[in-house]
Amino acid sequence: MSGRRSKTLYEEVYEEIRNDILTGKLKKGERLVSKRSIAEQFGVSVVTAENAIAQLIAEGYITAVQRSGYFIQYSGDGIAPAEEKPTLAAEKPLDNAPVSGAAALFPFTVWARLMRSVILEQDTRLLKPVTKGGVWELRSAISDYLYRCRGMKVHPDRIIIGAGSEYLYNQIIQLLGRKLTYAVENPCYEKTVKIYSLNDVKLRHIGMDNNGISISRLRESKADAVHISPAHHFPSGTVMPISRRSEIMKWAEEKSGRYIIEDDYDSEFRRTGLPVPAMFGMSGGGRVIYINTFSQTLAPSVRISYMCLPDELFSLWEEKMGFYSCPVPAFEQYTLAKFISEGYFERHINRMKKHVYRSLEMISSAIATDTVKIHETGDGLHFTVTIEKGAEEFIKKAEACGMKIRPLSGYYAEGGEAYSKDYVVSYAGADEEKVKEIFGGAHENI
Is residue 221 a contact partner of residue 206, using CB atoms and an 8 Å limit? Predict the structure, then answer.
């Protein structure tokens, strides 16, 4: 199957004449032969010739002059016609490789059943515009979930649904304004830095210590807003203690117009104990914007994230940005709402946690050698390693198993050269069978 749709006769005639105009064979001002002559030349009916001429007139290639005929209106200047779209066989093939690791745990059967249920229940309401901020059912389900699992009291009105965290980062910048100075952790998730940079705001990279972002350096930076991941920093894995979180809250309250952007991207994946309390729920949390995503917990292709706004900023959001349409389709929002409210989300998280931490123990055991030292493997879906030698071979093997490897130095704005032997390993997509096959059970040197 070529993938190329068949052309009607009038399209073929139209394209032949258009190409003659574009290549300069027919010059501007030149008279086109009559429609009867065109019909005879191409062996088609007069009606077909008329349809081709009508299309050429509509696109401005020729013009009709009453009682005089048709004249070339466009000068092709020797421009060649665009090449036809290549056939599907020549295009990049789809990635049909089966998913592995945590992604393979996605509950397709449940999700499909909920989708059918949503179609039956919502019917034509699925075709209506989505209310600003997102579907109420999803915002309400998220509100209940945050109260049960994170101890956060957030009214559904204050929850804004977005198409991925990157979309919400942009919304926050528009909400707070480009005149502010924004601070990020150093090291930091690279997309966060790129988005702030593309928005042309003043950006400060603040160094970290063992407790998280340095409060003294934050004060020195004269920043107005700080973007942090206190529950589990990426890529270092640092969990910010209550003392440091309290200091940052005090910093925000000291001056009007200061805000904390709390990125809680993988708080569900805490290995032991309860989740670290969110700063949004702390006393004085009126200066905190909370962000979380379902891309980590469900699948990267599920582009649904949300942010929680304090009362003050919600009023500003309604005033400045209430005209925005929610970019996430209603169908997906209703489905996710049922997935959360009927308890499937929490069961899925528990299943994911059991899988990834069993997988982590196996991977850690398989890859650790005299030359590969593993660091912080407590929470989240990544850890760091120091590779004394054979880094290229290690990376090649790890990527063949489905892991993603990046140099730790690449996440630093400055000072990264001190970590030239350190790498960040994202292991959620690892195929355990391939890990056993490629690395083996013995601690061989890489």
Answer: yes
Query: In which residue ranges of the chain is pLDDT below 50?
Result: 1-4, 442-446
How many angstroms separate the CA atoms of 210 and 277, rounded? 19
3-state class of 47 per DSSP? Answer: helix
Out of 319, 342, 365, pick the residue that ends a domain: 342
Place of tokens 């999803």: 138
Token code pair at residue 24: 């300069």
Provide the terminal-to-terminal Cα distance of the chain, rounded to the nearest Å: 47
- 193-204, pLDDT tens digit by residue? 999 999 999 999
**How high is the pLDDT of residue 80?**
60
Could you give the residue ranges of the DSSP H alpha helices within 177-210? 190-198
Strand-pair category, 159-162 with 305-308: antiparallel
Task: Write down the pLDDT at residue 300.
Answer: 83
Maximum separation of any 2 CA atoms in the chain, in Å: 91
What CA–CA distance (Å, rounded) separates 308 from 134?
Answer: 12
Q: Where are the beta strands (DSSP E) in 37-189?
A: 62-65, 69-72, 159-162, 181-186
Angle at CA 178, nearest 5°, toward 174 and 179?
A: 140
d(CA 264, CA 276): 10
Q: Which residue has the tokens 């966060």?
A: 192
For residue 307, which of 177, 184, 204, 166 has the smallest C-alpha distance? Answer: 166
> Residue 203, SS3?
strand
Torsion angle of C-alpha atoms 397, 403, 408, 409, degrees rounded to 10? 60
pLDDT in tens, 202-227: 999 999 999 999 999 999 999 999 99
Instruction: Compute the distance between CA of residue 278 and CA of residue 230 in angstroms, rounded to an integer.
Output: 8
Question: Under 8 Å CB-to-CB from 104, ≥6 apart: which residues?
Answer: 98
Residue 291 belongs to domain with CATH number: 3.40.640.10
46 and 113 both lie in a single domain:
no
Residues 136 and 173 in one domain: yes
DSSP string, 390-403: -HHHHHHHHHHTT-
Q: Do 311 and 380 have their domain in common?
A: no
Contact (Cβ atoms closer than 8 angstroms) between residue 33 and residue 63: no
Q: Model pTM greater than 0.90?
A: no
The angle, 0 to 180 degrees and rounded to 10, between the axes of the packed helices 432-439 and 391-400 is: 140
Strand pairing of 202-209 and 212-213?
antiparallel
Contact residues for 178 (Cβ-Cβ < 8 A; gap 6+): 199, 200, 201
